Amino acid sequence: MRKVLTLLVLAAGLLLAAGCGGDDNESAGGTTEATASCDKASLDLVNSGQLTIGTDNPAFPPWFEGTKEFDPWDPTTTPTKKGYEQEVAYGIAKQLGFTDDEVKWTVVPFNQSFRPGPKKFDFDINQISFLPERAEAVDFSDSYYDVEQAVVTVEGSKIADAKSVADLKDAKLGAQIGTTSLEMIGSTIEPSTDASVYDTNNDAISALKAKQIDGIVVDFPTALYMANVQLDKGKVVGRLPPGEGEYFGVVLEKDSGLTECVNDAIAKLRDDGTIDQLEQKWLAGGAPVLE
Fold this sequence. Notes:
alpha/beta; elongated
């Protein structure tokens, strides 16, 4: 009997020790693993020692701004770190432990960024909205910008004075292929004429200038730039009613080990007020909501 009791006491002691050890190890191990997985030296990168970031060419304000000395897709030039997405990208890089000199840019056409398969970038930042079908092929980060869509035209067009979505029903609208802007034309505006589809926003702008379409649907900050810079007498007709939680996310290769690290970096940029400050700096501007 004494032997049985002794064994029971020993077993209980072992269980208690194991339980305490498990708690300690889980706490320390969890922290260590989280820290180690996002430690710069342990990151699984496309090119060792540098963070390779993709974006499209051309890249437009207010998302990117450059000078003669800098294009964001040209690694031989000097970064200006200007423009909302460019500053967010460098902010993420800094949180991951990279200096500006260790950030390299590469050209990634919009529709190529979220296609299945290996990537030549560590992450891509290019006004790419999260969609479940896209997320089947790539990883998306948490939101770095919550999206509103808007309609752009020129003064004197048939929709220049539109006050509601109903006022757009008879308009000929256009948008870039593969974008949620194009989807919003069909799902929210439902015009009587099918939308025109373009490879790039530049092509849509050319069509608007040539009066082949009445307006373009794009995200709101891009609409502001189009109206004020790219079009003569351009005008933002208004913002479309909010979609169901549309947001821009950083794109990574499917099941990338960087995804949670990028999410952690974005969370820190939100927590310290950087995201809010950058939105006010680059993306602020008023336009009515078309109900």
